[in-house]
Structure formats: structure tokens, C-alpha cells
Amino acid sequence: MTKTALITGATAGFGDAIARRFAHEGWKVIVTGRRQERLDALVEALGGPEVAHPLCFDIRDEAATRAALESLPEGFAQIDALINNAGLARGTAPAQDCDLDDWRAMIDTNITGLAVMTRLTLDRLIARRGLIVNLASIAANWPYPGGNVYGGTKAFVQQFSLGLRSDLSGTGVRVTSIEPGLSESEFTLVRTGGDKAAYDKLYAGADPLQPEDIAESIYWVAALPAHVNINSIEIMPVSQSWAPFQIHRE
Ligand code: 8X3
Predict the structure, then answer these.
(1) 179 close to 137: Cβ distance less than 8 angstroms
(2) Ligand 1 atom showing the smallest separation from residue 136 Cα
(3) For residue range 201-244, what is the model confidence (pLDDT) as tens digits?
(4) Which residues 6+ apart lie within 8 Å of 144 measured at CB?
(5) Between vectors from CA 150 to CA 146 and to CA 151, what angle results, nearest 5°?
(6) Model confidence pTM above 0.85
(7) How far is the CA of 30 from the centre of ligand 1 (A)?
(8) What is the DSSP track for 126-160?
(9) Nearest Cα to 92, choosing from 155, 58, 143?
(10) Residue among 110, 177, 183 to mutate when testing ligand 1 (max atoms within 8 A of CB)
(11) CA angle 24, 132, 183 (to 5 degrees)
(12) Is-annotated flag, keyword Oxidoreductase (predicted)?
């Protein structure tokens, strides 16, 4: 039986690559995002409305999320996998210099949007003994200067994933937290406020992860036998590793 994956934030980066990977493997995909033209182009690229269904809404808006899910046509109403990819980082300034609107945007999207989407699809996922994949980050595991609220939101995603596993015991639903490190995508342009020079500098000579690398990991998780649950995967490019702790000296 053809399976269906719902991928949030599919208009760029990881989400776009995940949608393409699942569709390539014969899944139907529901692709969500705020940019209708990009969703329409993606649906076209994936093979049209038999294969892909677009839902255009802002994941920070609970009523819009509910309405979008209720609008799903019969062929896309069952959900076998929820890929909670939508999320963002805004800025790398120290906490004492941060803009509260940036913090709210991250909390509303990475925490509230993800939690609402999960809650509103849980009945469908339980009915299909489905899969939830949540996009966390290495920022959930390792603090770094300027990570502040972004890292906090991703720590929520990671712990929420573990809690879901506990609550879903006996339902057959699998839950995985994916924790990528340095990855090349539009994410960084959003984080830097569109600063292409900063984008280029970050990746120069670093051979970062690509969205296809993340899509590969997530598809692997989904394709495993139904009795296997990958709790978490932390992924870095080979070029990225740890540095000594900072010590401030007077
Ligand atoms: C983003 C990856 O390395 O900037 O989740 O924290 S990193």
C-alpha cells in the first residue's frame, strides 16, 4: 500500500530534499510551507497532484494548521510519517543583544508550531502505526556562543521526541530526533538576515552537510523494519568537531 509522508517546511533546504527523496521512493507526500509558488513548483517536480499535495499556511497559526489538515483530500488523508522539519534560527548575537521578536519567531515556530502539528496529526499517525521524525540540531546537545534561544528550542524538540516515545508506547508509532550540524541551506540566509557574504564565509572550505544527506538519513529511518526505532541521530560534516571550553580571564 502506498504510504504518505507529511513534510513541514518543504519550500527549501531539508524539507525540499526530504520530499524529493520520499517521492522518489514511491511515497505520496504532503508538502507544507508559506510560499504557494514554491509549493506548486515542488508538486510539479514531484510528479503532480497524484503524488504530492500542497498545504500553504503559517505553522505558527494553530487555526490555519487545523484548517489545512482538515482540507486534505481523501487520497492524502492518511498520514504514515510526519516529518517536523519547519524551523528557523534568527541571529547569532549574544543573549544580551538579542531582539525579542527574533526569539518569539523561533519559539513560535520551532516549539509551538511543531507541538501543535504533532498533536493535530497524532490520531492519524496512531491509526497507521506511523513515524514521527523531528528535526532538532546539534545545538540541542552542544551550547555555543549565540545559540541561546535557538539551542533551547532544539533541546525542546529533542526531549519532546523522547517524551512522545514514552506516551506512544504500545501504539506502534516510532519517533526519531535528527540532530544535524553544519549544513548548507537557506536556513543560514535566514539566520544571517540574508547576508550572502556571511553565508559564503561560513561554508568556505568546510564541505558542509547537504540537504540530501539529511534526507538520506531520514529515509533510512523510515525504511527500517517496523519493530526498529532510532531514538536519535546526531550528524556532523567531517570538518566539524569540538573546540576547548572558553575561559574568560581578568
Ligand atoms: C543548525 C546547525 O551547527 O548551526 O542547527 O548549530 S548549527
Answers:
(1) yes
(2) 5
(3) 999 999 999 999 999 999 999 999 999 999 999 999 999 999 99
(4) 151
(5) 85
(6) yes
(7) 26
(8) HHTT-EEEEE--GGGTS--TT-HHHHHHHHHHHHH
(9) 143
(10) 183
(11) 65
(12) yes
Pocket lined around ligand 1, Cβ cut-off 6 Å: 137-139, 180-182
Amino acid in position 176:
T
How many distinct helices (H) and strands (E) make up the chain? 9, 7
Domains defined along the chain, listed by start: 4-235 (3.40.50.720)
Return the H-helix or E-strand segment holding 65.
helix 62-70
pLDDT interval class at 17 (50, 70, 90) = very high
The residue type at 71: S
Strand partners, 6: 30, 82
Closest ligand 1 atom, residue 144 Cα:
6
* Range in 51-55, 183-187, 225-229 with the lowest mean pLDDT: 183-187
Ligand 1, atom 2: closest residue by C-alpha: 181
DSSP state of 78: -
The DSSP code sequence of 197-221 is HHHHHHHTTT--B-HHHHHHHHHHH
Task: Please pick, among 150, 199, 203, 219, the residue that the annotation labels catalytic.
Answer: 150
Amino acid at 247: I
Q: In what order do the strands lie in the sheet with 52-56?
A: 52-56, 28-33, 4-7, 81-84, 131-135, 174-180, 232-235
Q: Are 56 and 86 in contact (CB under 8 A)?
A: no
Is 150 a known active-site residue? yes
- CA of 182 from ligand 1 middle (Å) equals 5
